[in-house]
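Field guide to reading this record: the first block holds the primary sequence, the second block holds the structure written as discrete tokens, and the final block holds curator observations. Each block starts with its own label. This record concerns Cytochrome c oxidase accessory protein CcoG, catalogued under organism Neptunicella marina.

BLOCK 1 — SEQUENCE
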Amino acid sequence: MNDQIPVKDITPVKIHQPESSKHNNQYTPRSHIYVRAVKGALDTFRRTFGFFFLGMFALLPWLQFNGQQAILFDLAEQRFTIFNLTLWPQDLTLLAWIFIVAAYALFFVTTFAGRVWCGFMCPQTTWTFIFIWFEEVFEGNRNKRIKLDERKMDFDKFWRKSAKHLSWVIVSLLTALTFVGYFAPIRELFVDFFTLQTGFWITVWTLFFALCTYGNAGWLREIMCTHICPYARFQSVMFDKDTLTVTYDAARGESRGPRSRKMDKETREQKNIGDCVDCNLCVQVCPTGIDIRNGLQYECIDCGKCIDACNDTMDKMKYERGLIRFTSESELAGGKSHILRPKLVGYAVVLLVMVALLCLELFTRVPLAVDIIRDRNSLYRETNDGLIENVYTLKILNKSQFEQQYQISVSGLTDPRITGEQTISVKGGEVFTLPISVAVDPYSIKETVTNITFDVQAINAGEQDVVQHESSKFLYPDL
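BLOCK 2 — STRUCTURE
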């Protein structure tokens, strides 16, 4: 037999590195990245998008609802308030559903448009760009920042560096206070913090998050995206040939190199020169310091800054835009991207199912929790009038934000006599402990263990029908 194993050509892809003779101040992956400012449609969209969510982050904890903070995750009281919804530890399944929905939403978006979460919505990216903006304000553009760092320390360098770091500290502190304000009353937090009256742990957590913000956005930056964030490592498993990512069109751009603006297309074709003029701007504007022309890389956060820089160069050269663009592997190969594909449809279906289940959990949630504890000191006791009595302790949690009245009844026994309050008022968020006893005629008891049900129902006028049924046992073993 002459069976042959098929051989696939895996000739290594040529990696284009900028020539040191043409571009100064080259850096290694561990050296500081001086990000160049760029303007364009994607940069404008990213800034608008980022400021919108930044504004939401800053304003939401200040909103008031029914005389209290609208959004407050009170860990000390184990109570999460979101406008008219109050969540308790018993509602942990809701939190699980929210995380599941967020995960599948991330999978869906990544499969469709790559790592756009990192480039347009990730807090790390947003705060990094804010810190870079302060760098530009106090230290100047990219070239000026490089020269400033190469200079020896003088008064001009000292005050510029000091002003930059002071602005970073202020932004970090305001960010930390706002974040902690989601877990503690924010109005009192700001007043107490700046008057040095906050408690020990509030102060510790505020300073801790301020330090994290200062370190991440000011110093770590791209290291968070390339080495610490796990998303960078597993995102590629969700990619396919139709995933839209920031990509360099090598077929159109190579061979690259400088040329005169007057060189027409025919001359370039004769000399085998592509559209890439090797200006290196796509590298200079990249916040993670990569060269997008080297192909798909896990460090790319799909922010699109290289697209704006390249489009600006194409406009100046009077070439067609899109040498670097959001495109797919299929389009680069001459085909078309398929939006409706099994993986993407699968993620969409599962996401819709998870959202539906989350909504069902929310709409069917009863703002009342009841726990029954039998008296463990005695199985039963006989009253003076000959009835058999069991003792219970009811713990009633009002999961709403308003005071409620509840009516308590027992089913499963014949003519039960209840000793204890049968109509109670419970404040919003309060756990009410109610001792209660149930007694019946022994001649009506047919079994040594009888299943009974405590029915707790809200009786407030105008309120929705809120009722909770909790099962327990009635014991009389001496039958």
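BLOCK 3 — OBSERVATIONS
The radius of gyration is 33 Å.
Residues 21-62+114-334 form one domain.
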